Each structure stands twice: as C-alpha cells, then as structure tokens.
Amino acid sequence: MKIYTKTGDKGTTALFGGTRVPKHHIRIDSYGTVDELNSHIGLLRDQEMNPHYQNVLMEIQDLLFTVGAVLATDPEKATLKNGKDRLNIPRISEAEVAVLEKEMDTMNAELPPMTHFVLPGGHQTVSFCHIARCVCRRAERLATALYEVEPFDEFTLKYLNRLSDYLFVLARKLSHDLQANEIKWIPKKNS
C-alpha cells in the first residue's frame, strides 16, 4: 500500500464513507488532535514508570483510535445501505469511562489533598503528562464544537473529558512516585 495517494494535493481529504472535506474542516481538526494526543501519550508511555500505568496508557491509545474513527466518520454515511454501522468496531461506552474513574480514585487515595493549582513540571515525565493533558483538553474543545454542528456518540465526548482528568491525576501521581517537587501556584497579592 502506498502512503501517498495525491488525492489531498488540493487541500481536501476523505472521511470514512468517502465524503471529501477541506483539511481545515472542524472534523479533521478534531480527529487530528486526537491523533496528536495519542502520540503524546505514546511518548509518556515510553518513560520509566509503574508498568500498570504504561498498560493503562496503552489501552487509552487503543481507545483513542476508536475516538478518531468516530470523529472521522461522516454522520450521513455512518450507516451502510444494509443497515449496519460503517464502523464495525466496539464503541466507547460507560465502561471505558468507569475505568478511568476507578484509576483516578485509586491514584487519588495515595495523594495528598490538592489545596492549590500546581505548576506543570518538576520532572520530564510529569511534564510529558501535562502536555498530553493539555492536548486532550484541546481535542475535547474541538470535539464539542463538532458535536454542536454534527452530533455523534456522546460517550466519545464524555471519554475525552474524563481522560483529561485522568491525565491530570496521573501527572500528580507520577510527581509523587518520582518524588518530584509539586509546586503550588499561589497568586501574588497586589501591593
């Protein structure tokens, strides 16, 4: 299979179902940002950390391909003529959201209570996690903008929202595990 097709040379690309849209279309921006997020999570997963977190991150990466597929599907062509879904893959459900919530609860139980915002950083691994969190928030913002125009499965949005929360808690847990300095943001007072 050739990687280059030359079909996008004039600034359009095809969605699942064949519909061609401009490469700057909100749908392309949405799933492109999910792809970017997936790459950042891969970079994070490559760092030294508890193997359990690496396994969870790999599962997340797998699910992000599902999220991307949902976002890349033209809603008008999501159902085939025979009535079956164009995407013959399991969708994001409440179960995947619940996994993230359970993981967060487990990590939070080992962390000191949060009393202030924290400055991202303290260790390279923690910084990679915060970057992934920020990219996830951007993916969520783009997906919600798309959802307003062309709705799709709401669990996809819910998963992105919960994932950014998970990445924040994971960053705090990694700081804890790595004994990195978690710096609280304390606003300066006006003189």
TrEMBL record:
Superkingdom of origin: Bacteria
Protein name: Corrinoid adenosyltransferase
Pfam families noted in UniProt: Cob_adeno_trans
Associated pathway: Cofactor biosynthesis; adenosylcobalamin biosynthesis; adenosylcobalamin from cob(II)yrinate a,c-diamide: step 2/7
One GO molecular-function entry: corrinoid adenosyltransferase activity
Organism (species): Kordia periserrulae
Record text on subunit structure and interactions: Homotrimer.
Reaction equation(s) it catalyzes: 2 cob(II)yrinate a,c diamide + reduced [electron-transfer flavoprotein] + 2 ATP = 2 adenosylcob(III)yrinate a,c-diamide + 2 triphosphate + oxidized [electron-transfer flavoprotein] + 3 H(+); 2 cob(II)alamin + reduced [electron-transfer flavoprotein] + 2 ATP = 2 adenosylcob(III)alamin + 2 triphosphate + oxidized [electron-transfer flavoprotein] + 3 H(+)
Transferase listed as a keyword: yes
InterPro entries: CblAdoTrfase-like, CblAdoTrfase-like_sf, PduO-typ
Similarity remark: Belongs to the Cob(I)alamin adenosyltransferase family.
GO biological process: cobalamin biosynthetic process
Keyword terms: ATP-binding, Cobalamin biosynthesis, Nucleotide-binding, Transferase
Keyword Transferase included in the entry's annotation: yes
Broad EC category: transferase
Enzyme Commission numbers on file: 2.5.1.17
Domain Cobalamin adenosyltransferase-like: 3-173
